[in-house]
Give the backbone structure.
Amino acid sequence: MAMTGAQILVEGLLRQQVEHVFGYAGATICPAADALRAAPQIGYTLVRTEQNAGHMASGYARVTGKVGVCMVTSGPGATNLITGIATAYMDSIPLVAITGQVPSHLLGRDIFQEVDITGAVTPFTKHCYLVKDAAQLPRILAEAFHIASTGRPGPVLLDIPIDVQEQVVRHVEFPQEVHIRGYNPSVRGNEKQLDHVAAAICKAQRPVICAGGGVFLAGAQQRLREFVEKTGIPVVTTMMGLSLLPTEHPLNLGMVGAHGNVCANQALSNSDLLIMIGTRAADRAIVSPKELQKRLPSIHMDVDPAEIGKNMQATVPLVGDVGVMLGQLMDREITVDCGTWRETLRLQRSAELSRTYPVRTGSVFPGRLFRLLGQRLAPDAAVCVDVGQNQLWACKHLRLGGGRLLTSGGLGTMGYSLPAAIGVKTAQPERQTVVICGDGSFQMMMNELATVRAKGMDLKIVLLRNGVLGLVHQIQNQPPYHGSFGVNLEGDPDFAALAAAYGVESIHVSEEDQVEEALDRLMAAKGSCLLIADVSSQCLTTD
Amino acid sequence: MKQTISVLVENQAGVLNRITSLFSRRAFNIESLAVGVTDYPSLSRITIIVDSGNSVVEQVEKQLNKLVEVIKVRTLDEHSMIGWELMLIKVSANARTRENIMTICQIMGARVLDVTPTTMTMEIADTPVRVDDFEGMLRPFHILEVARTGIIALQKGSGKM
Ligand SMILES: Cc1ncc(C[n+]2csc(CCOP(=O)(O)OP(=O)(O)O)c2C)c(N)n1
């Protein structure tokens, strides 16, 4: 049967079991939009700026484990999407991004709304295609979804000129399977190396696991939990690994790194074997890798061979799917004798968890607010956290029973949380979903309240209002800098009135003794609700 | 240390851009880069010379391997490879100097491709060191233009990638 390129595209999406597309309209994507119109099985969300189509697809992908799909027009639509793509790339989130493009015979002439988007995104996509012939689309689509979702996941971009979307193909064949000769990610770990790993673990007296976002990407949360519970090895996580284990799980020591939990960092300093699982040992988590690698042996399990030895040299590298490899490890006899070590750490951790918070007047302390928020969350809640002080406080103080914490760990993109939460809600409308942000980041994404309203979504938003770009304000007021510059958010709107304009209820809290009640009201609100919590601009992430 | 990286890639548009962008992103300088198709029309071989330490080259190799169109990557050991380069060189020449230049060409195994009353253009294909030597010998005659292909390389013996 003859089909147009646009019809092939939509048929290909259906064959990949795509259920939702996040997008923004424009002239060069009209044929694809028209084909999508004819396929009501695929849901659609009109975002309010293209960057957020990427973030929504990311939130969607992270909770479903499926590939998130976004679709925008050429030129400014494509360039606006770049931040979304780069954010997904840094966190290895599987996306397929589709951009319209000017007619192929006019490519390179700088005509209206032409940009070289494949050229622009090459450094931060896993792969990208400029589609020149609609007959190739079935293969390219299958490859794109395969590449995005296998090995180390990541975004793949398809740039499709409008004439290719309109091109009629007489005989369309969709490939049954994908074969790309230069692309064969490892799945199973090398058995010999696994023996070495098992032996090293059995010998260790003070082992610690450092788990990262790669465990989520492999869908191996359960495997990891089984493994640590079976071996009794304490766990620290990176920011991307937060919520792999419940905060109060007896083996969970919290987050490592410059902004992490004291106990987690001490575990790292005093350990005699570091087992890194699905983490790239990036600068925020492992602050001085060179020192660490001199001092203690390490095992590094990751699906991407290029991560091994990039930031930190491991004693035993292990390349493959971390879930599969944890399974392979559990087939071996592993006994770890680290009871004393575990006990010491557990005591330190309980002391840290039972800390008290300073009491102020006229503002609330974020650490306490997040502890109280945690007590009110459903067991499977999704919490989308923005970037800045609000993020560091949330990562350090929020307690999650189960559920999932989502944040832009790699790129640190302000304005990630609300669109990511919309992505979560799109996939799982019943799931309790909370957004945590600052007044700066909120203003980078508040236009999406329209999307929330259009979809009748129930999101609980916690906005920490300190009147400044807090984290940068904090940095500027410490040596070597001499004070604030360009971080005062004067001109901030009346957030309650703003929320009301979008039909969103709001609550304001500025005293410690009102926090509980405010949180109760937030969580009990019917539909979306914004909690505006006044925080002192003098409050530091180290407090 | 100079290292030779040989890369087999899909013979497609955009591949070279991806490879060079990978280098520039990490601020590695490429000393030379040569591309050409292989005996399989769908495959090209890229030979890249970089001047960096081993750990850098190892990381480059891994990053190259991650590119979807890259099929194989190998850093060639300088003792077990043949690295060859072609140079075209144009020098000033007149009736008085022509004979001397001819002698140098003969010794070095270069060929004269073009002669005019005031110039001579030669071709030499050899190891980069010998190509450098040849260029050095011609310098006194006043070099007008030089074009070098960059090194292409294969492993010695029956081994292949
Ligand atoms: C898009 C973007 N621009 C700039 C930054 C740099 N930056 C990091 S944190 C921060 C301040 C965030 O302010 P706010 O959202 O009010 O949160 P707070 O730190 O006050 O909690 C800035 C500007 C960034 N991470 N992302």
Summary: The two ends of chain B are 23 Å apart (CA to CA). Chain B has a mean pLDDT of 93. Residues A 386-390, 412-414, 438-441, 464, 466, 468-472 surround thiamine diphosphate (CB under 6 Å). Chain B has two domains: 2-76, 82-153.
